[in-house]
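Lay summary

Proteins are chains of building blocks that fold into shapes. Our project writes down both the chain and a compact code for its shape. Here are two examples, one after the other.
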Amino acid sequence: MTTAAPVTARSTAARPTFARVLSVDALRGLVMILMALDHVRDFVSRDAMQFSPTDLTRTTPAIFLTRWVTHFCAPTFAFTAGLGAYFWLRRRRSNGALSRYLVTRGLWLILIELTLLRFVFFLDYRYTNAFFLLNVIWMLGLSMIVLAVLVHLPPKILIPLSIVVIAGHNLFDGINAQRFGQAAWVWNILHQPGVFRVGSDMAFVAYPLVPWFAVMALGFCAGQVFQWDFLQRQQFLLRTGVALTVAFLILRAVNVYGDPSRWTSQHSVVLTAMSFLNCTKYPPSLLFLLMTLGPALVALACLERISLSDSNPLLVFGRVPFFYFVLHLAVIHAIAILISLARYGRTPFLLVPPPSLGGPADMFPANFGVSLAMVYVLWIAVVVGLYPVCRRFARLKRERRSWWLSYL
């Protein structure tokens, strides 16, 4: 991609308009709200302590769909982060400046994952746990660092490269990290979730780099669509979103390639449908990304047709995603602690992550957690409670425009 020309009175129309960027913020806000549901379920759901929500031998349609609907979060985060990088480029007009911003932003996110978010999960300020969870924020940070290099490629190279990575990475599913011996950790970071040792500490990679960086790169390339006129952009987003969704349905039905887990016929239509939708997220398979990014593009097109005020929750949460992410995790963990304190008193597991998040199952009672209905009640309470705080912070970012606020 060539360096963007300075914006003048004649070139102002080539920039993404405010209304168009609002739809991106709104989409991000929507998935952030859904994300809170998943994390409430992780911390306090009784069922989550006992089995995976996608375990078809034990789950129910309600539990499965509660988990499945949140699958849209991570792909949308990565894709809209790429869009945000493109919008940043249009404002700053320099690929070099964008690369520097992406590197510093990426390193900042990785640092937060290893420090602040680790504390939020484990409440271990002394680092006695010696365990690091490399989760979604780590993935976004590392992908930004890779994107800092990729933004210098022209779209005619970057677009097919990103598609090849997304479409072809499942060809390497059969490669196990252990075959690389002492270098197994490299494959864990690149493609296979797993645990490896860092000195005397342990690290678990939940979100490998491939193919997430390619999703972010596609988002960056898709930013050019926001230079088009409204009708042309709407047609592209809708048609592409529908095409991706149809491609998912066809490839999943064929059941040959695109996901390491094949779907199977079950003893009921509902369970068979659940098996069909049960695609692999870690790392995200081709089918997982088609299943999520297709509807996300359709939603993006639809949101652009809706008039949203600055006080709309979708925009409020979508404008402060990082702030919301850290705050909502802290609030949800605090709620889990209060529930345990009220039910069991001061116990050894009070400050320990629940089994659903890797905590020792033998420390927790068999009936630990709350019902799925209560999960939804707590989810709504968390979102409503965070709204005024996030709205104030969004207003602060808009009014002050300090460089350090752009990292929050």
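And here is the second example, written the same way.
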Amino acid sequence: MFDWRDFLALAQILGTGAPGSSLSIQVSEATARCAVGRAYYAAFGHARDYAIQNLGFVSTGGAADHGRLARHFHAHGLSGVALGLGLLRTWRNECDYDGAVSNLPTKVRDALRESAAVIQRL
């Protein structure tokens, strides 16, 4: 089974380089946006698998699972996980859909931190 935490490691590599420096790719706004997205999916995937295995969550495999999962954690007394997933999803949506993202370096830093916190809570 895939370890969703590996997405967090990728997000850390993509999100912590200085603009213009080289990893195996050129660090840019695109890589920063990707880092936010990967941080979200690291937390979401890990949390979903945890909820399925430990809390009786039934995944439909659809887009509605994102909100359903957060509500499931809240209903099971894990509001910190629910809140973290909500923040990460908001930032990911901004990075995926908005033409301009304000404070992108801050969002990258916060997304990496919040993703790690969600994973640690589980």
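What can we say about the second shape? The helical segments are 5-16, 29-54, 65-75, 79-97, 104-121.
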